[in-house]
Design goal:
alpha/beta; Rossmann fold; 6-stranded parallel beta sheet; 45% helix; UDP_glycos_trans_CS
């Protein structure tokens, strides 16, 4: 409703008319019907601002509205009305640079129509001031997203405050702490989710982040269960403090034949550990809300049914991985037990993903692979899950998400929930001297100038391939930060290296000296999340492990795809094809490596398109966990289901 303190405008309107639209100028709605929509009193502002169609926000500059606009990357026309809004407008127009002002007439304080039209046109069309404000709004959106990333300024600030509060709480007596809890906390313990991780950082890190979100955002208690046989203290060091951990006791595996594949060992380990897992589940004091095994641990799903709780599978990889498992299972529908069939030479999956057999993980390339039968059984058990939680987000694989929704609607597959990206937080090791050296070196480099090279915790190259990569980086002429691991020495190169335990000793002779002014090579490890989110980092030469792919997507860094093993070739196909944030060298030789790096760093055609798509995907990844984001809503839906089941059990 308009402010009528100044009296009616002379036109015949009922001052008590509750419809604000009745006060608009005569004929306005009719004249703008093809271009505009006017609504009375309210709109879902966060969703409107985050919608791709929204380009400019004419705003009163209230601080909540300002932050919503900033988080969506939408520039503003500043129209302050009262309280601190004029002060906010000065900052937004001046030091922040994401708004253009409106200047009221001195005579009556009214903002004239030409002033309004000029500011809107400037922001929507201008190639000068408007473009600068639009660019700054986009940069600030990325900064807002980084503020709550694992290395973000706001997250770290709140962590510092929380640590202070927890330390103060620890000094109190337990009775005092208990008495300060709410009645609800004293009478109704939080529902408990138990998550089962298969070994390996690539599985543990995202599952631990899921557990943290369930605790922090949804009020669950969470216990992350690992296997003593194959878990390391280093991997467990990244588990958030709010998540409890439990280790399954070691079980005998010495009856397995020498040379048994790691996958087969894992599946046997899971089966033999089920009695111990059952004991842990029965020992949970609070109401058990759900069991969430990793996708290699689906043999645990019957325990959920036995205990009468939901059983959801967690997939640390993408939806294409689940689509591959589903295709394998459907290929064997109606096939007699013990008979196995090869997948087709060209496998077409949802979302327009086409995989050659050589793109598949080795275990899927032939039905004669020893682990093929185990994987088929894993996939069949997925059909009995109550749901599948996947470490991806809607905007990354939209067509695949929609196809899985249709499959769930037909009852052909459990509902699938994209709830990522889960990006690992900072750990104590990130503050080590090596980490500081990397970040300090990056701080001295120009913005967008560095190629980051890393092949994950398990990736290694041959000595010959290492030499080709070194030559390619040098030939590209660009700055680089290279995490060098020990080479694969199945075949020695014949050179007499004095320090064979130092990865840098295996680099070509003179390489470090020739590139000292442009490159930094570090042995074995770097704080990857911090490196990727650093303003100097422009390109990531990566093995395409899914954790690394999501860390790169969250930082808006395009990828040179260099897959090595497991599902990485399949990931590379997805990242280059349907997602469009990667390029692959046609051959892994120095000239092609240099050409692909140059294309991503400098290219005006294909390289520019990939860089733009990486930036767009970064914004989509940030939106996925915004208040109205796709992943936040998906996990809210799952959490509500679990709480409803738990409440029914308590009653």
């Amino acid at each position: 409703m308009p402010n009528l303190d100044g009296g009616n405008d002379g036109r015949d309107r009922d001052d008590d008319n509750p419809n604000p639209l009745a006060w608009l100028p005569d004929g306005f709605l009719e004249r703008t019907a093809d271009k505009g929509l006017a609504v009375a009193a309210w709109a879902p502002q966060v969703r409107v601002l985050s919608h791709p169609a929204t380009a400019v926000f004419v705003s009163h500059c209230g601080w909540n509205s300002t932050l919503e606009s900033v988080s969506a990357g939408v520039p503003m026309v500043a129209w302050p009305l009262y309280a601190e809004q004029r002060m906010n407008a000065v900052a937004l127009v001046g030091s922040v640079g994401v708004a253009l002002p409106l200047r009221p007439r001195e005579a009556d304080g009214v903002v004239a129509r030409d002033e309004i039209a000029g500011a809107v046109k400037e922001l929507m069309e201008s190639a000068e001031k408007g473009r600068a404000v639009r660019r700054q709004a986009g940069d600030l959106q990325q900064a807002a997203a980084r503020a709550w990333s694992p290395e973000g300024s706001s997250r770290r600030a709140l962590e510092e405050v929380a640590a202070t509060w927890k330390k103060a709480t620890e000094t109190m007596g337990s009775t005092e702490v208990y008495n300060r809890g709410s009645i609800g906390e004293r009478l109704a313990p939080r529902p408990h989710v138990v998550l089962l991780a298969s070994p390996g950082a690539g599985h543990l890190i995202p599952l631990a982040e899921l557990a943290r979100r369930l605790v922090d955002d949804h009020g669950f208690a969470a216990t992350l269960v690992t296997f003593t046989d194959l878990s390391t203290a280093e991997a467990l060091s990244g588990v958030p403090a709010c998540v409890a951990t439990a280790a399954l006791p070691a079980v005998p595996l010495d009856d397995l034949l020498a040379g048994t594949s790691m996958e087969t060992v894992l599946f046997e380990l899971v089966h033999r550990s089920l009695p111990n897992l059952r004991a842990i589940l029965r020992s949970v004091g609070a109401p058990l809300a759900a069991l969430v095994p990793d996708f290699f641990c689906s043999a645990a799903l019957p325990l959920a049914a036995e205990l009468g709780v939901p059983g959801y599978v967690f997939v640390p990889s993408n939806l294409t991985t689940i689509a591959l498992m589903r295709a394998t299972v459907e290929l064997h529908d109606g096939v007699p037990p013990g008979e196995y069939r090869d997948l087709p030479e060209l496998l077409c999956l949802p979302g327009g993903v086409s995989l050659r057999r050589t793109d598949l993980p080795r275990s899927f390339q032939s039905s004669n692979e020893p682990v093929y039968a185990h994987l088929l059984e894993e996939g069949r058990r997925y059909r009995g899950a109550d749901g599948i939680l996947v470490n991806t987000f809607y905007e990354l694989e939209p067509a695949t998400v929609e196809e899985f929704k249709q499959a769930a609607g037909r009852g052909a597959f459990p509902p699938v929930f994209p709830v990522g990206p889960f990006v690992r937080p900072s750990t104590s090791s990130d503050e080590a001297a090596g980490a500081s050296a990397c970040i300090e070196w990056l701080d001295r480099q120009p913005t967008g100038s560095v190629v980051y090279v890393s092949f994950g915790s398990g990736g290694s190259l041959t000595v010959e391939q290492t030499a080709e990569l070194a030559a390619g980086l040098e030939a590209s002429g660009h700055r680089f930060l290279w995490v060098v691991r020990m080479p694969n020495l199945d075949g020695n190169d014949g050179h007499d290296h004095e320090d064979k335990q130092n990865p840098l000793a295996w680099l070509p002779a003179g390489f470090l000296e020739r590139t000292a002014d442009k490159g930094l090579a570090v042995a074995a490890w770097a704080p990857q999340v911090r490196v990727l989110s650093h303003p100097a980092t422009a390109v990531f030469v990566s093995h395409c492990g899914w954790n690394s792919a999501l860390e790169s997507a969250s930082a808006g860094v395009p990828i040179v795809a260099w897959p090595l093993y497991a599902e990485q070739r399949m990931n590379a196909v997805v990242l280059e094809g349907s997602v469009g944030v990667a390029l692959r060298p046609r051959a892994r030789e120095r000239g092609e490596i240099a050409a692909v790096v140059k294309e991503l760093m400098e290219g005006a055609d294909k390289g520019r398109a990939v860089r733009r798509q990486a930036g767009d995907l970064q914004q989509a990844a940030a939106r996925a966990w915004s208040p109205e984001g796709s992943s936040r809503r998906a996990l809210e839906q799952v959490a509500a289901t679990w709480k409803k089941v738990t409440l029914a059990e308590v009653k």
